[in-house]
Please model this.
Amino acid sequence: LDAHLKLAKDAPDDVLSCYSESGDSLSLAFGRFLAINSSGDVYCGGAHPSHGKNNSNLDLKTGKTITFAELFRNPVEARRIVHAGILDQAKQGEYLSWFQDNTGYREWLNKGEYEIYITERALYVDIPYYCHICPMEEAEIPWKNLADLLAPAGPLGPFLPEIREIAHTQFREETERPVN
Model:
């Protein structure tokens, strides 16, 4: 113990310093859903900093927090689409093997307890920090991939016609995009 105390006492000041960063953002979707995104990083030495992220959606009409499962008629099928969307985005960033090989990621995926935030373009799903090398923080799942699974009686039910129109536009943009 004395040796460690001496090393700490003799260490340069910058070795023992810490930093932290945090940020919050708010967005409103469909004039009713407030997405609250908070994140932060802390580093006090060692190999890697600590990360934290939290997203939630508040239904301004009911005052309730919205969960992933209550959005869909078939949450299991919605999870399958989310997984496919994550893998597709991972391929674009050359991260595919990390997602295929990471046990923590697979366990999280199968639980289906996702932190999400709703926008008028897509549903965003946070990917938790199961280890410091997680290459993506979130995945954007466009409404074109999820619109048919939304529960008519769920929080987004009143907005299904608008979401279907957004999905139709996304399909049209995708099919009209030139192929390289």
Summary: The two ends are 63 Å apart (CA to CA). The first strand starts at residue 19 and ends at 29. Residues 66 and 136 are 23 Å apart (CA to CA).
